[in-house]
Every structure is written in C-alpha cells, then in structure tokens.
Amino acid sequence: MIGERRIVLEPREVPLGGVRGMNVLRALPHRNLPTIGAWCFLDRFGPADTRMRVEPHPHIGLQTVTWPLVGEIRHRDSLGSDADLRRGQLNLMTAGNGISHSEYSIGDNPIPLDALQFWVVLPESARHGAAGFERHTSLPGLALPAEQGADASATVVLGEFAGVRSPATVHTPIVGAEIVVPAGTRVRLPLRPEWEHAVMLVEGDAQVAEHPLSLNDTLYLGDSRDTVTVESAEGALLFVLGGEPFEDEIVMWWNFAGRSHDEIAEAREEWEAASARFGEVEGHDVRIPAPPLPPVRLMPRSRKL
C-alpha cells in the first residue's frame, strides 16, 4: 500500500514549438511520480486563441484521451478515422503496437481553445496489440449528494467512478471523471481505497482534503481513502484521475511508452523510415520528424512518492 498522501503536483510550462507553436502546462509525468494508476501524462493546452496544427506523429504502448473544455478539434489517424470533437465528448485512441494521428483546430483562423490531454500506459497484455479509435458523444453522469450547498455532479470519462462505468475501452482498473462543484458546496467524493487518486483543479476555487488548490494544481492523494472532501466558495470544475497502481516500470520518450531503450529506439527508427507499422494519415503531405535520441540510454522513471 502507498498510504494517504497530500502532495501538490504543480504544473510546469512546456514549449511544444514546431508546427503546434504553443505552450502547455504539464502535470504528469512528475519527477517523483511517473504514473497515477495507469495515467502517465497530463497536459493542459489553453485557454488561448490559437490555430492548432499538430501534423501526423506516432505513438506506441499507450492510449490518448482528449477532453476538450472550449473549442473543437479534428482528429485524423492512420486507421482512417476522421472525427471532430467538442465539449462533453471523448476521443480515445489506442496505439497498441503503433499508430499515427494528427490534431487540428476547426477552421483556418485562431479560435478559443482549451483542453486536457491525457495518456494511459497500456499493460503487457495490450501494448503489442492492434490499434483502435473510439469516439463517445454521450458519457454517463451522476449526482453527488452535498453535505452543504447544492449537489455536485460527475461525468465518468474513463473507467469507473462511484459505481458508474464509462463505455470507453480500458485495459487496467482506472478512473477518470469530471466533477462540477456548485458555489458554496461541500461534498465527499467516493474513492476506492485500494486505488491511488489525484484531483486537478481545472476552473474556479477548491479545497481538496482541506488543502487549498491553485488553478491547474493536481493534488496527489495516494491510496487508502474511501472518500475525499471537496469544498468550493465560488464553484469549481475538477478532474479526478486514478486507478490500481501500475506495477511495470516504463520508459517514456517523445510519443512512445515502452519498457526499454532498445524498444524506443526501434520505434523511432521505424517512424523515420516511414514503416508500415505506423501507417499514413490521409490529407497530409508533411509529418513531424522524430527528435534525436539522447546520448545516453533511456531508463525507467522511478516512483519516489
């Protein structure tokens, strides 16, 4: 068991540059915490008026979870998927042994855009499997009875929360849920004590486990909790993520999640060689080249929390 924790994972600003040409706030991976459950990556891009153009790029060994807050995003991938995404909908792409995709904002001009982008690392049983893409336009929700004020509500994006399950495909015990807390509300969020959890403040103000959060902070809670108390004076939008602690050590580099340096190097070489492993995304005449590997062997990131 990990035990109860109350550690703020402050996001760091990361310039993505290139054709995307924008900065993001990154909470995961954290230098002391590579995963929370199977969640291995969390970016927030926005809010900003921007023209997003993410040209085709590859993934292995993970799922991408795109959760828009403002604006519309067009997803295209090497499976032939072509889907627009807007608030309240979920795009879930499973890389398996290899996939490539692009992400564009809708239209030719800058638009208001804000979204959360997550990665979920795949276990051994799924990471060498076939790629896949799912679009879910309707996700289950539930009311959360308040101890004070109006009831809160939850949308179950991925996995299971409070006995309600998302229709999206998962490969590990996991939870990803958006929580809306009205102004003046105090509510207990139900948790599974055998899972580790974290809560991100996306909008508004909140105290989680009696700890005040700043905007975009993620509070890591560890495990061994069956509830956590959330309070908000002005109202809050939160995202709960967690799941069964992921036991495998992973090597993450660029857009790849593997288990060894050699596996990552092989995937990079195949992308640069335009291997059939990653296919082609129709409608593009350029793609993002892989950066050079560092001059040292890539090693797994260790959990220090």
TrEMBL record:
Transmembrane segments: none
InterPro entries for this protein: Pirin, Pirin_C_dom, Pirin_N_dom, RmlC-like_jellyroll, RmlC_Cupin_sf
Pfam families recorded: Pirin, Pirin_C
Residue span(s) of domain Pirin C-terminal: 178-274
Record domain Pirin N-terminal: where: 24-120
Domain of life: Bacteria
Membership in a protein family: Belongs to the pirin family.
Protein name per Swiss-Prot or TrEMBL: Pirin family protein
Organismal lineage: Bacteria, Bacillati, Actinomycetota, Actinomycetes, Micrococcales
